[in-house]
Amino acid sequence: MKHVIIDHVSKAFVKEGTPALNEISFEVEEGELFGLIGPDGAGKTTLFRILTTLLLADSGNASVNGLDVVRDYKEIRKQVGYMPGRFSLYQDLSVEENLNFFATIFNTTLEQNYDLIKDIYVQIEPFKNRRAGKLSGGMKQKLALCCALIHKPTVLFLDEPTTGVDAVSRKEFWEMLKGLKQQGITILVSTPYMDEASLCEKIALIQNGEILSIDTPEKIVDQYPKPLYAIKSPDMSRLLKSLRNSQIIQSANAFGEYHHITLSDDGIDSEKVLASLNMEGSEMKTIKPTIEDCFINLMRDE
Ligand SMILES: Nc1ncnc2c1ncn2[C@@H]1O[C@H](COP(=O)(O)OP(=O)(O)OP(=O)(O)O)[C@@H](O)[C@H]1O
């Protein structure tokens, strides 16, 4: 069953220029862990706010759990959990007080839904009397997730939950999402971190309010249109300049230790490329594209 349906949704905050969302359409299956992947300003928050009934679209339709986001907004609010991008909790209330507050709003108690949150809650329980504002980033995120789950939602919207959180907490967070998925919750999560894409079952790549591609991470990688190479030399910035000025190089992008390149003619071999650059100590090898390579390639085609 389709749990979330987005059908030609558009939203513009200003009359001129690029709209925040431009005719977005896609669907999310029940129980799916779905990632909305895109840089700052791509439109992720705007879409989540429309789906959680906090913002009206200019045109198009959307439904969650078979309920229309405009007509059935009250019912949707009871059925979805939303963790906004920015810290949404009461900084001056303790961990326990925040949880009780959100439980009360939904006419429930921590005890009633303890099963769903217990794996996450046990990690913050030792700090239950600490004010939320005094928690570490990772702990705040766990508390925000518990609060979003307190009323047993069937669909969970998590807006950039791992932004600004350390690497260990990010990893732990994705483990928690896997656990929630196993309990049957449909999860839509947005992130600007391309490396998190492979942790989702399905992803939509979004840029400037438009969907560039939507599929499983594996299929998106398989659809990369050309052989991709990684190249390095002792002088990486001179190498990048030479690559970008070379006629036989189609694209060159810096990727940490290596630059990733495609060739204008796939018949050219790496020896010829290295010879044409004439830079001592250079190395080149074929590589499998990452989601970031795919994103950059799709952006160029736009
Ligand atoms: N209330 C608003 N008024 C005017 N412009 C807005 C408003 N909200 C969002 N925008 C603009 O709409 C575009 C999409 O913003 P949105 O917040 O949805 O992106 P995002 O992918 O969530 O990125 P971010 O991580 O920066 O929030 C951006 O250009 C943003 O400046």
UniProtKB/TrEMBL annotation:
Transport keyword on record: yes
Keywords: ATP-binding, Nodulation, Nucleotide-binding, Transport
Annotated GO MF terms: ATP binding
Residues in ABC transporter domain copies: 4-233
InterPro entries membership: AAA+_ATPase, ABC_transporter-like_ATP-bd, ABC_transporter-like_CS, ABC_transporter_ATP-binding, P-loop_NTPase
PROSITE patterns: ABC_TRANSPORTER_1 (PS00211), ABC_TRANSPORTER_2 (PS50893)
Domain of life: Bacteria
CDD domains: ABC_DR_subfamily_A
Family to which the UniProt record says this protein belongs: Belongs to the ABC transporter superfamily.
Protein name: ABC transporter ATP-binding protein
Originating organism: Reichenbachiella ulvae
